[in-house]
Design a protein that fits this description.
The complex is a heterotrimer of chains A (269), B (313) and C (319).
Chain A lengths: L6 H19 L1 H4 L30 H37 L1 H15 L3 H12 L3 H28 L2 H8 L4 H37 L11 H9 L7 H28 L4
Chain B lengths: L1 H29 L5 H6 L5 H11 L5 H13 L5 E2 L4 E2 H36 L4 H14 L3 H15 L11 H36 L2 H8 L4 H38 L5 H10 L3 H29 L7
Antiparallel strand pairs in B: 1-2
Helix pairs in contact in B: 1-4, 1-12, 5-6, 5-8, 5-10, 5-12, 6-8, 7-8, 7-10, 8-10, 9-10, 10-11, 10-12, 11-12
Chain C lengths: L1 E12 L2 E13 L4 E5 L6 H9 L8 E8 L2 E2 L5 H7 L4 E4 L13 H13 L3 H14 L5 H4 L9 H13 L5 E5 L7 H18 L2 E6 L2 H7 L2 E6 L2 E7 H6 L4 H9 L37 H5 L5 E2 L5 E2 L4 H4 L1
Parallel strand pairs in C: 3-8, 3-9, 6-7, 7-8
Antiparallel strand pairs in C: 1-2, 1-4, 4-5, 9-10, 10-12, 11-12
Helix pairs in contact in C: 3-4, 3-6, 4-6, 6-7
The chains are: A mainly alpha (269), B mainly alpha (313), C alpha/beta (319).
Chain lengths: 269, 313, 319
Amino acid sequence: MTRRPGSPLIAGIAMLLLLALALAAGPALTGYSGETVDFSRALRPPSAGHWMGTDNLGRDVLTRVLLGGRIDLRIVAICVALPFLLGSAIGAASGYAGGWLDRIVMRVVDVLWAFPFYVLVIAIVGTLGPSMANLYVAFTLVVWISFARIVRGEVLVAKRAEYMVAARLLGFSHARIVLRHLLPNAITPAIVFAFGDAVLTILAVTALSFLGLGVQPPTPEWGVMIADGRNFIFDAWWISTFPGAAIIYAGLALTLLGEGIDDLLRPKG
Amino acid sequence: MALLRYTLSRILQMIPVLLGITLVAFLLLRVLPGDPASLMIGARGSDADVLRLRHQLGLDRPLWVQYAIFLREMASGSFGQSLAYRRPVMTLIAERLAPTLWLVGLATVLAVAITFPLAVVSALRRNRLPDLVIKTVFTAALSMPQFWLGILLILLFSLRLHLFPVAGYGSGPLGHLWHLFLPAFVIALGTSALTIRSLRSSIIAVQTAEYIDTAYAKGLTGRMVMRRHILRNAAVSTISVLGVHTGWVIGGTVVIESVFAIPGLGQLLVASIAARDYAAVQGLTVVFAVMVTAISLATDLGYALVDPRVELE
Amino acid sequence: MLELRNLRTAFEADGRRVVAVDGVSLRVAAGQMFGLVGESGCGKSATCRSILRLFSDARATIEGEIAFGGRDLARLPEADLAAVRGREIAMIFQDPMTALNPTMRVGAQIAEGLRRHRDLRGGAARREAIAMLRSVGVPGAEQRVASYPHEFSGGMRQRVLIAIALACRPKLLIADEPTTALDVTIQDQILKLILRLRQELGMGVLLVTHDLGVVAQTCERVAVMYAGHIVEEAPVAALFRRPRHPYTAALLAALPGRGRNRDLRAIPGGPPDLAAPPQGCRFHPRCPHAIDACRVQRPPLVETGDGGRTACLRWREVT
C-alpha cells in the first residue's frame, strides 16, 4: 500500500466541502428550525423523520448540530487566526531584531509555556466572564506563544541564509526584508501548525462550552449540546452522541487537510 | 553525582520562570478588565459593598504592594484565604492534590501500556492492515472530545454494564484505581495517539540503524533485538513527546475531573471560577504551572538516564 | 568451509527490483584470509549480508546455495540461522560510529553474545568481556567495560566491535569494509589486529574492501566483483602479478604508484544501474577491449591455469 501524496489533501478538502455545504444549507436541508420547542416530539430516537432524533425540548438534533457547526467553525477560525497573526508578528519581530526585545519575548514565552493550556484559558475566561468574545481574548493570549516560537525559529534560520545577506547588502529596508524575504519562508511551518492547532481548538472550545465557560445555552453549540444531553444520556443517547461525532468529523477533516498542506508546502525526501 | 548537580542547577534555572509564573497568575486577575470585587458581589450588592470588599481584598492598594503581599502569602505557604471556603487556599489544594496525581499517574501508566505494544505492531506490520487500523483509530482519537468519550464510557460501562462507578474517587489504592480507570483511560487514549505515532516512526528509524545489524549478527532473536536494542533507543524520543504532552494532559484533567466528578484540582478550579473565588483560582494556576515545570524537569532527567549521550551540565 | 554456489540476491530499492548479487560462487577455506573487492554498489556488501541473511528489508530474496559446516544456510530457518550468527559466523560492519548501541554499556553488548551462545551471565560474562576487550587491545579494560560507546574513539569502537564479534570464537569472520571509515594509521592497526586474532583463533576471514592495497597486505585469495558478478578470482600474488580481467587491470592501474591511470574514472563511464544492467559482460560498455560477442553473452568463469579464474572472453589475448 503506497499512499499517493495528494490523497490526504483531497480527502480533507472533500470532507470540509461536504461539511460547509451542509452547514450552509442548515435548516433548509432538514426542514426543521432547530429552535422551536415542541414537547410532543421530545426525546424521539433517530428515525427517517429525525435522522439524529430529537432532544428533550423536541428540537431536531441534526438541525441543531448544523447550526452548532456554524458557530463552532466560526469560533475556531477566529481562535486560530488571531493567535496566528499576533504570534507570527511577535515571533518575526523578535527573531529579526534580536537583542533585548528577543530576550524579553522569549522570557514571556517560557513563562506562559509553563502553564497548562486549559488552566490558563479557563482562568482567563473565568476572570473576564464566560462569553464568545472572551474566548477569542483567552485563546489569543495563550496560543500566540506557539506561533511566536515557530516563526522566530524559522526567522533565525532564514536570517543566516545567503539571500538575506544579499538583501541587506543591497540596502533594502528592514520592513521590506522582513515582509518580502523573511516571512514568506518563515510562515510555512506556522501555517502547517495552524491546522493541527485548529483541531485542538475545536476540542478546547467545545470543552469550555461544555463546562459552561464558553458559548452559553440556548445557543446551539456542540459542547453545549453534549452538556445538555448528558442529563438524558441513559434514555436518549443520541442527543450527546451526534454532536460529539460532528466534532470528530470536523477534527478529522482538518487533520487530513493539515497533513495534505504539510505535504504540499514542505515536500519531504 | 553529575545527575544530582544537574538537577540542582536545573532547579536554580527554574527560579526566574517560577517568579514569572506568580507574576502572570497575579496579573491575570488585576490587569484584565473586569473588577473581581464587583464580579464577586454581583448585581445585588451596592457600591458601598463593592468598595468595602475591594478594601478587604487589598485591591485599592498600589499594584506592586499587592504583588508583594501575594508573594508573601505564597512564601508563607497559605496562598491566601479562599473566600468561598473560608480556609487557606493551600489547605484546599493539599486536599485535592492526591486525586489529580493519581489520575495523571494512572493515565500515564495506561498510555505507556497502550503505546508500546501497538507501536511495535504498527512498526513491524507497517502499511499493512494492523498498522492502518491503528493509525485510523488513533487519528480519530486525536480529534475525539475527551468529555464526550467520558460520557459515552459512563453510559456503557457504568450505567448499562455496571462495571465501573459513575463518579468519585473511591477509598484506598484499589478503590482509587477502580474509580479512576475510565477517566484515566480517556486521557491515556488521547496521549497514546501522539506517542504511538512518535514511537512507531522512531522504531522504523532505529530498525535500519547499523547497531541493529550488529545485534542480529550476534545471534540475538528478533524479540531480543526489539526489546533490548530497538525499543530502548526508540523510546528516548518518545519520552520527550510524552513530556511535552504532559502539560496538555494535566490541563485535560480539568475537563475530565468535571465529567467524572473526581474531587481533584481541576474540579476545584472550575468550582472556584464559578464561585468567583479569585484567591483559589490564583493559587491553583500557580500550582498547575509548577506541576508542569516539575514534570518537564523529570522528563529531562528521565531522558538523561535513558540516553547516556545527554550531557549533564 | 564456506562455499557460495550461484548466489542470487535481490531486493527493492526506490520501488524497483534490484538484483545486487547475480550468480556469485566462491569458496573460503578454513582459516583462510579471503578478500572480496569492488567499487561501492557492486554487490559485495549484499553478498556478505546474504550469508547471514541480515537484511532489514523483508522483501529481500536469496537464491542459490550457502554451504557451511555441512548445512545450506540459505535454506536454514531463521531460528537456526540465529544460532549460527555470532557463534560460528560473526560479522563486523563499516562504520564503528554507528554500529554500537549508543544506550548500552560496551560490556553489556559483548556479554549479550556470551549469554546467548555460551550461557555465561553475571560475573563470568563480565570477566570474559574484560578479557575480550583486553585481547583486542582496549587499554584499561576493567574500567572501559562499563563505558558507553560515545566515550570511545572510532578506532577503539572498531576494536569493541571486533570483541563483540569474536566473543564466541567463531570459525569465520565477515568483515565488511572494517577500516574504510577510519584514519589511515588506525586502519593499519585494525588490520594487524584482525590478522593477529585470526592466527590466535584459527578462523577464516572474509574481508570486504574497495581497496586492493588492503588485500595485497592481508589476503591469500581474492575475488573481484563488478555489477553483481564475480569477474576474477585468484591467489593474491597471481592476481597482482598478472590480472586476467580488464576490470582488475584497471583497478590495479588505479592504485597509487602503479601504472599511468591514477584513478578509476580514467575508464570511461560509470558502474551500471543494477535495476537495468547491460547485456552480456557487464563491463563491456567501459571495456577498451570489448567486441560484439561481449555484448551478447555473459562470459563464464574459466580456469586460467595459474590457480585463478576469470570471466573475460578475451582474457588470453588482452591480459
